Amino acid sequence: MGNGKKKLLAILLAGCCAVSGCAKGEGEETRTEEAAHIVTGTVECKEVYIRAKIPGYLTDIPVEEGQEVHEGDLLFSTDERDVKVKQTQASATAQAAAGAVEAAKAVAQKAQENVKLLETEYAKYQELFEIDALAQDTMDKLSTQLEAARLDLQAANAQVSAATGQLQAARGVLSEVNLNLGQTSQYAPCNGTVTLISSSVGELIGTGTTIVTLTDYSDRWILANVDEYEIGKLRIGQEVPLTSKAYPDTVFHGKIVNVSKNPDFAIKKSTNELNDQDVVTYEVKIALSGEDDVMLYPGMLIGVDLDKVGEAQ
Fold first, then answer.
1. Ramachandran angles phi, psi of 189, nearest 5°
2. Could you tell me if 108 and 153 are in contact, meaning their C-beta atoms sit under 8 angstroms apart?
3. pTM for the whole thing?
4. Domain-by-domain residue ranges, the chain?
5. CATH of domain 47-79+184-213
6. CA-to-CA distance for 225 and 209, rounded, in angstroms?
7. Least confident of 27-41, 52-66, 71-85, 126-140
């Protein structure tokens, strides 16, 4: 009798464990499926890198990190004395080239007048030659003079072209120097916050060196990588609810503005020989709504609920 009860109790316990194990497995599978529909994105902001366009010594950086600036505000200046010296030299060269052009034109004008004079004289003597009133030697001499005058005119015109080319080159150098002079001061191309100053006053910087970094926090978006099983139901213009650990009680609003058609990277590699395939992801860009006035900083992780994606109104 005792042995029978023990066997019955063992059977009941085994059944409870089996039911419990099944329930637990189903719960884990459900949670896994639910989690699979929430992807994590990252907050991105528009950043502008203000670089030096010409080399020189930094003479002024009138802004500080964390300072709000507006479009057109001065960000930094470099020493302009070297550029002004080059400007003076280039200006003098351009003036000299302009003088050379005028001189060449005067020579060409004189050569042109000489050709016209000889052509008129040649035509007059040609009439006399045709009635045998002029010797052949005289006509030959006049013909030689006319041909020489025409060659002089060609040479003079070539000199005008050469001088004009030199003038254009000199003016090009002057324009470049004037442009460089204007680039000794760099201004904010947009509104933003100074988030990084990479150099100090007195430092010698080279062309392309980043001096100031501006961040426009008003231009924010989310970049999320969505796997190929979910990407098919996303469309540009759809509204997406967003959540952040920094603000657990707030639901943010976003709108899909781009779905990349190029795969990003594999998030699940095949690790067996059962014909499994890699799962790739596609980058989705989600613009934040201007209605949400809570600051989401660059780099924050944002939850994107793919189950609640809806069409824009």
1. -80, -10
2. yes
3. 0.65
4. 47-79+184-213, 81-182
5. 2.40.50.100
6. 33
7. 27-41
